[in-house]
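ugh ok so i messed up the first submission bc i forgot one of the chains. this is the corrected input, ALL of the components this time, i swear. 685 residues overall. if the numbers dont match what u have on ur side tell me asap before i send this to the collaborators (the ones from the other lab, u know who)
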Amino acid sequence: MLLEKLCNLDGVSGNEGAVRDFIKSQISSYADNISVDNIGNLIAFKKGSDSSKKVMLSCHTDEVGFIINGITKEGYLEFQTVGGIDTRVIISKKVRIGNIKGIIGIKAIHLTTKSERENIPKVKDLYIDIGAKDEEDAKKYVRLGDYAAFDTDFELLGKSSIKAKAIDDRVGCYILTELIKQPVQYDTYFCFCTQEEVGLRGSRVAAYKINPDICLVIEATTCSDVKGSVPHGYSTIMNKGAAISFMDRTTIYNKDLYEWLYELAKKNNIPVQYKNLVAGGNDAGIIHLTNNGIPTLSVSLPCRYIHSPCGIASLDDIESLKKLSLCFIKNIGEII
Amino acid sequence: MRGMKNLENTIRTLSDLRGISGFEYRISDEIFNLFKPYCDEIKQDALGNIIALKKGNKGNKKIMLEAHCDEIGLLVSDIDENGFLSFVNIGGVDSRILPSAEVIVHAKRDIKGVIGAKPPHLQDADEENKSIKIKDMSIDTGLSKEEVKENIIIGTPVTLSQSVGKLLNNNISLKTLDDRAGVAAILEIFKKLDRIDADLYASISVQEEVGLRGAKTSAFSIMSDFAIAIDVCHAITPDNSKEAFDSGSGVVITVGPNIHPKISQKLLDIAKKYDIKTNIEVSNGDTGTDAWAIQVAGAGIPTGLLSIPLKYMHTSVETMNLDDFSALVNLIEKFLKESDEFSEDWLCY
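and heres the new structure output, hopefully the right one now
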């Protein structure tokens, strides 16, 4: 399964090569031109039947993870987080640095004080243990600046949900990889951007260069229909379809555009919901401000426990997101 | 090297079994069958302990080796209207290891899940440095509420699902080394040791993690002349060097009031004789292991305690060095062989 392969690849921001190479191998026969730009974005161009307009479809190849910034005398790896990771989800989890396995441990509960148990250690007080004997031994396997990713297997949960790392935004990569197989009306740029998680870096230069007439960002977003949350704080709801954004922390979306997309989904019987919380942000935040301003829309997959070792998402929602993105391409002539 | 691979497989097989305290019946058949080929008698007592006997050439004495087979875990305590499962901990679980942990819910069938909590964007700024309370977490199976209601009931045991495997340098990180490593050691002894003069008993005990309960009844029913409990102790990690030993530095022999001094001395002497790496752990009273229960079973049983240093105990990434495990098995084997020559009064004060 393509999405499974994509999620199981490691591509922490700044180290997206494996994801880029895999996608390139999947799409090369469908594109009229493929290039990798100066920041590592993979851009596939597909000529449309009408070259009067340019459409950009954007997703990101990177995922949140870790970068090694020290090795102790005893051979433990010091690290920093790359992208937004809540320290609470990384304790007692497994990670990998390429094919070297590691764990982020914590001392036994027997040795803790009440106050230690009530507070979360700082990242600088946590270590990755790869089983090295000492610093010299560790250096045989790991260099400063190496990246570590969550070591989580993609799996189905029941018949209708998936559990994986990096659903954000390999689901976008998956959908773009599928969409490029379809004929397009306008000249279309399929952009697999780098470094979204560290500040929307890749999409900025991609959008500058392409300067499209419209852009659709395909993403994963927070879904919090979980215990401890209240309905007005849900953001999105799992199994209710793809989520269209009207506002997030980086973008106020164009009302005519998002309402058009919402109605389009309804007309085509595609399950859809609004992301009803002004939280998070994505590449749209940079793209819509690029050059003279680029009309931009975001559609996202609701993903529970996003930015953690284990996200959960619905297969039906993935299908909705795919259908809605395709619907966008096919009907884009209505609005540009 | 081949021998090491076999040891690793034995440990892995046992670690992968899933039986939290009070629910060891889920794994007792497997443990029973692992021991059966290597003993003369095997039975399960009323509390669920598995007791195996390898008869001695003379049968003039009884020696008991003991390890516990239960593991820490969770128990489903409530199911909400959307199918999210609330839970309580069984045994000592640091709640900080749970958010975003993968689990297996042992319902009618095994159901996978992830532990979730309120997401960061809905929390107050100061919450992110505070650990989440277990009552504010839930297990998300990704199933519809109908499927959850149909398959899962309150009181269903849950285990942590993560197992990492081999790290560098013979280090291994598995779900449950406390105390399946001890069970594995006893199984190895039963496999490789020829009959000794004494009757050799194994007690694979239940419910250690909730208060040393299984060993109370197994020690009573076997009533051995002396006993050795096998468990894990803390290994040094970057966040703790107290009450702990370097992983890879050998087997740990405990001394203190819980331990019969002649037994710890004999273990130390034999380790020295065969050049087996050891450390001494000093415990001023309760060792927190089944040795504490065994020592006062019936009219009292002279008891020793051997441990393997374990990093990150009671987490889903428990890690030990297989060299320490080999040293442990080696020491017990040599000790048992030499026991034929122990004088009648070797345990007298």
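quick check: Helices of chain B lie at 2-15, 25-35, 145-151, 180-192, 214-222, 261-273, 290-294, 322-338. that seems consistent at least. The longest strand of chain B covers residues 226-234.
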